[in-house]
Design brief:
Helices cover 41% and strands 14% of the residues. The protein is α/β, with parallel strands linked by helices.
Length: 224
């Protein structure tokens, strides 16, 4: 029983290609890391109405080579019009887009195979509906599917301060298996522009997806 528990714990730590914190490299970890850093992935990117449209833009900018399915809420489009140069997202031609009010999307069913879903930025309204199983639009239904199918679901909330309801909703999502990566940038790499600040958060999202990148300096990483 103890051995099975150790294996299960190792699998949880290596979801998305993240290596265990003890620095050891077991054959299992190496296989998972290689798989997620080299294999073509099917991803869902969902954008909601929280401020931080640039986070979504920079993530999309670094998903080349992956199969990306994109869904945006109406408030997300309004926020993009205010925050982005040109008033809207710049999306690659091979990205497949969907309306947030349609169930004619493959990822709203568990029978369709996808690797991961990222909600970036994630409004607290969307986070709360996902936490409580309210599948009232394409984004929330898709997130519900990823949770029930035990697939990687990453939420990037951009809100401050949190109230107790926010925290409890995040607790429920963590217990259900979601990854929560708050849009909290780091500064030890001395970012010089707004984009570089944003990239410190997007880099962590890419890490949890298992996608190689050079977006931001890692702690104690020497210059190559």
């Amino acid at each position: 029983m103890d051995t099975r528990r150790q294996i299960a714990a190792s699998l949880r730590r290596t979801r998305g290609g993240v290596k265990p914190s003890n620095g050891r490299h077991s054959p299992l970890v190496n296989v998972l890391t290689v798989r997620h850093s080299t294999v073509h992935m099917k991803l869902v990117v969902a954008i909601t109405g929280a401020s931080g449209a640039l986070y979504a833009q920079r993530l999309l900018d670094h998903l080349h080579g992956q199969e990306v399915h994109l869904v945006s809420s109406d408030p997300a489009k309004e926020v993009a019009a205010l925050e982005l140069d040109g008033g809207k997202l710049v999306v690659a031609k091979d990205v497949i887009g969907y309306d947030n009010r349609s169930m004619h999307a493959p990822f709203v069913s568990g029978s369709a195979r996808f690797d991961a879903m990222v909600v970036i930025p994630c409004s607290m309204g969307t986070l709360g509906r996902i936490a409580n199983g309210t599948s009232d639009d394409t984004i929330c239904r898709a997130a519900d599917v990823f949770l029930k199918e035990h697939r990687k679901l990453i939420l990037v909330p951009r809100e401050t301060p949190y109230n107790l309801i926010h925290v409890r909703n995040m607790e429920r999502l963590l217990e259900a298996g979601a990854d929560i990566i708050p849009a909290t940038p780091s500064f030890y790499g001395r970012p010089q522009t707004v984009q570089q600040v944003v990239d410190t958060v997007v880099a962590r999202v890419l890490d949890h997806l298992g996608i190689e990148h050079k977006l931001a300096k890692r702690w104690m990483e020497t210059e190559s």
